[in-house]
Write a structure and sequence with these properties.
115 residues; seven-stranded mixed β-sheet; four-stranded antiparallel β-sheet; 54% strand
């Protein structure tokens, strides 16, 4: 059974850091483009960061210089290191795996940035 399970969300103060992790099962993510998306209340889901099979990342302008995505093909995981968090980063964060017609999503983890 294909699954993506996110972890690491929580409540953090502005300026703080969190590290999200996504564990894949039922498939090998090494061939997939892996991404992190987020959806804030009342807003559409948006791409935060993704990493291609060769390890090349790209980021939304709003998180460049603050967030870092990485993949560990041996452990079948992908991570999102989030630094200098802002209240506007508050959202449910989703892990995504994409390869041709296969498009897998996790159930999400909530990140709340508030003092």
């Amino acid at each position: 059974q294909v699954q993506l399970v996110e972890s690491g969300g929580g409540l953090v103060q502005p300026g703080g850091s969190l590290r999200l992790s996504c564990a894949a099962s039922g498939f090998r993510l090494s061939s997939y483009v892996m991404g992190w998306y987020r959806q804030a209340p009342g807003k559409q889901r948006e791409l935060v960061a993704r990493v291609f099979t060769g390890g090349f990342p790209n980021y939304a302008d709003s998180v460049k210089g603050r967030f870092s995505i990485s993949r560990d093909n041996a452990k079948n995981t992908v991570a999102l290191q989030m630094n200098s968090l802002k209240p506007e980063d508050t959202a449910v964060y989703y892990c995504n795996a994409l390869l041709n017609g296969n498009d897998y999503w996790g159930k999400g983890t909530l990140v709340t940035v508030s003092s």
